[in-house]
Amino acid sequence: MIFLLVSSLPLLISLVIIIVLYKRLRPKWIRAFTWYMLFTQIIAIVGYQYSARFKESNHFIFNSYLLVEFIFFFCIFYKSFQTKRLKKLTVALAIGFLIFTILSFLSVFAKDGFYVFNSPVYMVGSLITIIMCLLFFVSLFKSEGIINYFQIPMFWIATGILFYFVGNFIYLGFIDYIIANNLDKDGAIYRFITFTLSLLLYSLFTIGFLSNQTLKTKT
Amino acid sequence: MIFGVIFTTIVLLLLAAFLMFFFVRYRVKNNDYIKEREAMQKSFEQTLLQSQIEVQEATFAGVAKELHDNIGQLLSSTKMLLGITQRNMGNSPDTLTIAEETLGKAISELRSLSKSLDREWLEQFDFIHNLEAESSRINEAKHLRISFTHPEKISLKPDEQIILFRIVQEAMQNAMKHAHPALIQIHLTVAKEKLRVLVTDDGSGFDESHQKEGMGIRNMKHRTKLLGGNINWNSTGNGSSVIIELPNNAYKL
Q: Could you say which of B74, B97, B122 is where a domain stops?
């Protein structure tokens, strides 16, 4: 339980800050992060408790969570893109991801059952999310006029997401192999990577929410 | 194997960090370039406006010279001839006397007008004196009354003084030409590091939704822009007003 608390600390701090700033957040859709982070925390608690009580794999919980997480990020990028072309691309990738997820779940469940982590879905979702982050940066990069990245909440959020998924990509891509060969015996490496990346992710989220606050006060 | 995973993760994270660094650095450079370009554009516009105004002032000076040296001299000669005729006739008719008086007034008006257009003459006085002289010139005609309230002293750079004077002069001319007022009030105030000139009249006003932007209005806007200020027009059923506001750097106390 202490591990859960410590590993959730960055998320909890970020959650408290977004709740405090909730009504002042602009653009308004940034508020959706409150519900996303709340949901993430609930899933973390449920997953931990399930595993601790029933001594069974909690991967089915996180398999379900993956779908919600990636769809949430796709929605966020859809809102943040300014051009119709990028919005259409986001919708197309989201649909593609959904189809892939359904097919993947069906094949994985048929083969390995419900309690195996669906790493292909995670890999594809991560890859699409990384592409969206890069597209977001390119669209910012190409935008006209004077832009201060540091005052754009989505800049910080996208940076956090980029680092998080890039950092997790390799480990979770090889997770089946690592588990099968017992390469990370007590999961210490995984815990270290996840904690470090979570710390970075939620710290950047928090800066994003606060930068939005600075911008609002200035204007 | 696990070290390979860790190593690749670190390499990818470093790559992402480098990418972010590149994005931010490029944008900072781009922002500097845009700022520089905007400053150059602004400077170019200012120079262009300055040139336009200088050309206009030169034209005014030419017109003033022509009025004074040519038309003024012709009218003076005519007045002199009328005077000689009056003396030769001994008992001249009243109409001739009235004609001579009217001609005298016309010469006086012409001289005043000529002076108000002459830049060299304007530069001898400060803005307040210039405007007082202009108000007096119009008040003398007794078609309408102009009141001018102002602080005791205000100093503008000579160039800025001329530009502001021309803006107010145009506002007064517009009111007289289009609104036919009985009273024009000019309030010059300095508050919160801003120079503010309010020109109000009790004329017929204008329909703000159908306001046409003629050359006079454009000139007023250009001149105000050159001083780094802003100008606004308001109209009600009881008249209209022009508000000119100049920032701190446009004047010196």
A: B122
CA atoms within 13 A on the CB side of B121: 17
Interchain CB contact of B215 with A (< 8 Å): no
**Do B149 and B216 reside in the same domain of the chain?**
yes
- ipTM computed for the complex: 0.84
Query: Could you give the percent of chain B with pLDDT greater than 90?
Result: 25
Number of CB atoms found within 10 A of residue A1's CB: 9
Both B67 and B135 in one domain: the answer is no
B20 has a chain A CB within 8 A of its CB: yes
If one counts the domains in chain B, the total is 2
**pLDDT surpassing 50 at residue B183:** yes
Across the interface, of B5, B24, B26, the residue whose CB is closest to A171 is B5
Q: In which band, very low, low, confident or very high, does the pLDDT at A219 lie, cut at 50, 70 and 90?
A: very low
Residue A78 Cα, gap to closest chain B Cα (Å): 21
Q: For B131-142, how does the pLDDT look when each residue is reduced to its tens digit (9 = 90+)?
A: 888 888 888 877
Domain that holds residue B190: 126-253
Structural domain spans, chain A: 2-218
Same domain? For B18 and B69 the reply is yes
B41 min Cα distance to partner chain A (Å): 14
Final residue of a structural domain among B122, B148, B180:
B122
- If asked whether residues B174 and B107 sit together in one domain, one would say no
Long-range contacts of B232-237 (CB under 8 A, 24+ apart): B233/B206, B233/B208, B234/B208, B235/B205, B235/B206, B235/B207, B235/B208, B236/B205, B237/B205
Query: Smallest CA–CA separation between B58 and chain A, in Å?
Result: 39
